[in-house]
Amino acid sequence: MSSYRDFLQETRQQIDEIDAERARELHGDPEPAVFLDVREREEWDEGHIPGAVHLPRGWLESRIERAVPDHAKPIVAYCASGNRSTFAARTLEELGYENVASLAGGINDWKRHGYPLEVPTGALGPEQRTRYSRHLLIPEVGEEGQLKLLQSRILLIGAGGLGSPAALYLAAAGVGTVGIVDADVVDETNLQRQILHSTASLGEPKVESAERTIRELNPDVEVKAYKELLSSENIERILGDGWDVIVDGADNFPTRYLVNDAAVWHDIPLVHGSIFRFEGQATVFKPHEGPCYRCLFPQPPPPELAPSCAEGGVLGVLPGVVGSLQASEAIKLALGIGEPLIGRLLLFDALTTTFTEVALRRDPDCPVCGESPTITEYVDYVEFCNPVRA
User: Fold this and answer.
1) CATH for the 152-385 domain, from 3.40.190.10, 1.10.4160.10, 3.40.50.720, 3.30.1360.70
2) Which residues lie closer than 8 Å to 361 by C-beta, 6 or more apart?
3) Residue-wise pLDDT tens digits, 227-236
């Protein structure tokens, strides 16, 4: 029966090995090889070859195709001393990779030669790796994406039906700063759908109830609470705190038009959502890349044709569906992944459980985002949405 040492020696004879000097040459090539670090996370965090791809040996077979899809691409596998990378190189050859070598002596020999190392800054701590472990498994997110989320700033307009699920999922995802604008207090009629709040929150300002719930869910998240009614007078101050994405959970037209105009002028992506009875809709208004809210609704409908949830009612679970979609869109925008709902209006009917997508186009004559805008400063949005009729 052969020993581990015998097996290692036999495998070494079946692969190509290169020394640190040759690895350094390959690293400096105009089209360098892929340097594949097969060590564990703790070892990687102590320092790795600049530009290397981290793929622990235990995940090699299941994830290498996504990390290095081109089987003809040169690969230099390395570990601490060259043993694990020997077996990794043999595995890669068996998987069909054509140009694989193992770094003899591993990163230890690389360091002995004084070659450069890269040490991650601001890396996730052990507790964060556990908390966000399911994100770290997703190639489109990973540690880099999770760090980006932790540095992101997302502003929620409203802590009600739509703001509640959006806030909870953004906080759970690890969005570093969540802003919440709401002047209302929690009452019993909210509890049928506004899951940020509880019976114990009755009579409490919604932003304070929301802040407490979010902090209990994820202490990584900083909450900036604005206990005030959003208006033309305060929106510049609030946006001045710096936000990457706005999630609009407003339940009235004056606020929707106000937020839209501000988002266009500040070049901030706006995730829109609205609900009524059994129907909901969501879309993304990204300035200069698609339409804005005014392109979709140049004029607000008469109040009698657009009753609020307080007047017409809403299925309690509906804002959970739409608010979760808004959170998903906001996370995609923060990470820069996927295809956000830009120029696409997603309609949801809870009675039939159907989704319908409608294409939206930017209006070149839009008074705010068009080629020759006529509205360039804030207006009286209440008067705009409720004009006095003779």
Assistant:
1) 3.40.50.720
2) 291, 295, 343
3) 999 999 999 9
Cα distances (Å, whole numbers) of residue 352 to 239, 314, 358: 39, 15, 17
Task: State pTM to two decimals.
Answer: 0.78
Predicted confidence at residue 390, as pLDDT, reads: 42
Q: Residue 305: is its pLDDT beyond 70? A: no
Q: Are 252 and 234 in contact (CB under 8 A)?
A: no
- For residues 305 and 292, what is the distance between their CA atoms, to the nearest angstrom? 22
What's the one-letter identity of residue 341?
L
Q: Tokens 């609020």 map to which residue?
A: 308
- Residue 186: what residue type? V
**Mean pLDDT across the chain:** 94
User: Helix, strand, coil: what percent of the chain each, to 5?
Assistant: 40, 20, 45
Q: Is 91:65 a contact under the CB 8 Å cutoff?
A: no
In this structure, what token pair is assigned to residue 180?
């919440």
Q: What is the DSSP string of 47-74?
A: -B-TTPEE--GGGHHHHHHHH---TTS-
